[in-house]
Amino acid sequence: MRGATRVKWAVGVTAVALTAAACGGSSDSGGSGSSTGGSGGGIVRASWGDPQNPLEPANTTEVQGGKVLDMIFRGLKQYNPKTAKAENMIADSITTSDSQNFDIKLKSGWTFSNGEPVNADSFINAWNYDTLLKNAQLNASFFQYIDGYDKVHPDTDGAKSTATTLSGLTKVSDTEFKVKLNQKFALFPDTLGYAAFYPLPKAFFSNRTAWLAKPVGNGPYAISSYTKGSKMELKKWDGYKGPDPARNGGVELRVYTDNNTAYTDLQAGNIDLVDDIPVAQLRNVKSDLGDRYINVPAGIIQTIAFPLYSSRWSSANSAKVRQGLSMAIDRKQITDTIFQQTRTPATDWTSPVLGSAGGYKAGLCGAECTYNAAKAKQLVAEGGGLPGGKITISYNADTGSHKTWVDAVCNSINNALGNNKACVGAPVGTFADFRNRITSKQMNDPFRAGWQMDYPLIQDFLQPQYFTGASSNDSHYSNATFDKLVNQANAASSTADSVSKFQDAEKQLVTDMPAIPLWYQNGSAGYSANLSNVALNPFSVPVYNEIKVK
Amino acid sequence: MGRYVIRRLLQMIPVFIGSTFLIFFMVYALGDPVAALFGDRAPDPATAAQIRHDLHLDDPLWKQYLIYMKNIFTGDFGTAFNGQSVTSLMGSAFPVTIRLTIVAIIFEIIIGITLGVLTGMKRGKPVDTGVLLLTLIVISVPTFVTGYVLQYLFGVQLKWTSPSVSPDAPFNELILPGLVLALVSLAYVTRLTRTSIAENTRADYLRTAVAKGLPRRRIIVRHLLRNSLIPVVTFIGTDIGFLMGGAIVTERIFNIHGVGYQLYQGILRNNAPTVVGFVTILVLVFLIANLLVDLLYAVLDPRIRYA
């Protein structure tokens, strides 16, 4: 009897174990099946994050949604994935004589993947839709320089639109339209590669819900299936006439909730491309992947911004304190030890991806952004010391690994000032709460700030962040000289002239230090042996259409 | 019995209203979600105001709650920021998490109770000490550690399973995540069963059964186990709701797009409709599981009566 019981239990346990093993086996063979399928069809299996908002060109503010838009859309201009230079794509020519009135001619023959032609109306209708207040597009402000913006999108709270179309847009013919701006803006044509300016097909306006379920564009890929929150399959669009067709059969984007899992899946061979290497894996990534690990600069700069509206930071001498704090941060040590060289110490307020012709100037910030503990202590003392004797640096604790580096920065400041209570990190629970405190001017002390460029222009690094009253001027910095130089730069007649004026403006930031430049962020990616020709563009997004599948 | 069930169901109504209001209030207290939509850019006031108006965020809290409850009774749970309705999010998330929970509960029942009976009957023997030590280890190691370790071991090194679960999340892919999710509860079930069994082996009715000369198997299953299961059933019953809501860590590690994941996203993005909708359903699951547990008592022990 006793024996029988025991045998029963044993059988039960073995049965469970066997089922487990059997199922494990079957899913394994499923995995290898899909990988052979991948090599046959030439599909790139890539990691993805769930886009925050519906996929509309002017409603996408983050990288994950932007990634898809850049695969299924092409705009008037396209940023060269290597040099970041804005080059004509659908635009045949964009001409101006006064930096304010632009004449845009389109190439003929472009179509959307549903067969509709891409013409002047595709742009005019899209831009009007994107601007109209009622549509509440998050990127509406990108159209603010076009004449008539204030009527279609009044900026005061509670105001109603008095027009539904931008008066600055005039159709000349199907292949030509004119844009009138409300101020001079020499670099305007170079902004037109940004996703907000993409054209939209008629299908979008006739049935927006259906379009959002499966967006239709004019790029090298067409969406074949989209399961929100988990997976998107993109197929190479054979009707694409542009100069950069897809060199693979398609891309399968899989949503990962945790980049560690994506990395594990890459190691197990379930996925081919991961474009966000988890910080915890940076130590092993070179030995795991060898030269299949990519680590290149991207158009992202990280700073520590000061609330200049707070009485703690608004005194005449407090700029010296800010300069002193900047000099107290040992950028090189932090980027080496904490970020494993996936960040580069910053020496100006732009990004190396711009290149020197685009406005990046190494060392522009000079001694003020170089670690010098003795000088730091002296400057802080001259500026009247830290307000109240100590400062905090706020960051959001929910995403990224901000705690680690904020603690390191504080540690560096404490060491330089010889006071281990001078600086502490101040975590804020969620990004939403963090942003709320910043936009409602509730900050009293410095906070982490980051800027990912919309388009590779020096203008995009300086104007939105430091111009008086600009959309992302979180410091609420205001300096008449800076504003005057930016206006002059925008009105300049040539790009080179404009860039050099912007750099003059940037020099004002060294004196006032509204934000301390910390480091330029790199894009990091890893890929499997199935792929070749993988590269990241200046926005740290993989150049999907160039990837070859073995 | 019938009156008891009806009374219990009626009691659920205030609990339901109270909990939804509390959750609504708490998510509301997290602050305004609109600023985060714009990323690092400050929202332009007009667009932000328009979005707030569209989402009723400019109304006072009580009015938002009334609008929300009115919509719930028409089957409309609101919309997440990515444009999906919360009901469709639930439709995709709940089946996945329910499957995961079922796998976990099965592990708890089969392995937990088996080990519990085994150790309960062999108190002080090496098997008992061994299993107790093992459960102690399992309880003390955090879930994310066991999760990552087992994922790496079975997914990357041995290649028995895939490290992540596909979007459809069929049962066979959920075995490893289910085990990880179940482990801690499983250890408690083992210990609970062991104690209960150990206690009841000395009970009068068991001595009677042995003295009557009943077969050993019948003594264990019908007399000993059945009477010892009441605390275990209580634990497993409450665990159903706990597992469904608390699967965040496991779901994240194995890339399962279930309830935990949606709740996490909802909290990160301050999306009140998502959080309140999901928690409302979880509250219902909790309440119903508790009712079922209470009803099961009578099945296990006929001496228990309801009025």
How are the SSEs placed, and which strands pair?
The complex is a heterodimer of chains A (550) and B (307).
Chain A: H1 2-41, E1 43-48, H2 63-72, E2 77-79, E3 86-88, E4 91-96, E5 101-106, H3 120-131, H4 149-152, E6 169-173, E7 176-180, H5 188-191, H6 202-206, H7 208-213, E8 221-227, E9 231-236, E10 250-255, H8 259-268, E11 273-274, H9 285-289, E12 293-305, H10 318-327, H11 331-337, E13 343-345, H12 355-358, H13 373-382, E14 391-396, H14 402-417, E15 423-428, H15 431-439, E16 447-452, H16 458-466, H17 480-491, H18 495-512, E17 515-527, E18 531-532, E19 548-549
Parallel strand pairs in A: 1-10, 14-15
Antiparallel strand pairs in A: 2-3, 4-5, 5-7, 6-7, 8-9, 9-10, 11-17, 12-16, 12-17, 13-17, 18-19
Chain B: H1 2-29, H2 34-37, H3 45-54, H4 61-73, H5 86-121, H6 126-140, H7 143-157, H8 175-200, H9 204-212, H10 216-245, H11 248-253, H12 259-268, H13 272-300
Element-by-element helix/strand order of chain B: HHHHHHHHHHHHH
Query: Which segments of chain B are poorly predicted (pLDDT under 50) over 5 or more consecutive residues?
Result: none
Strand content of chain A is 15-25%
Tell me about the largest β-sheet of chain B: none
Identify low-pLDDT runs of chain A: 1-40
Please, what is the average pLDDT of chain B?
Answer: 87
What sort of overall outline of chain A do the alpha carbons produce when their principal axes are compared? globular
Question: Can you summarize this structure?
Answer:
The complex is a heterodimer of chains A (550) and B (307). Chain A is an alpha+beta fold and 550 residues long. Chain A has helices spanning 2-41, 63-72, 120-131, 149-152, 188-191, 202-206, 208-213, 259-268, 285-289, 318-327, 331-337, 355-358, 373-382, 402-417, 431-439, 458-466, 480-491, 495-512; strands at residues 43-48, 77-79, 86-88, 91-96, 101-106, 169-173, 176-180, 221-227, 231-236, 250-255, 273-274, 293-305, 343-345, 391-396, 423-428, 447-452, 515-527, 531-532, 548-549.
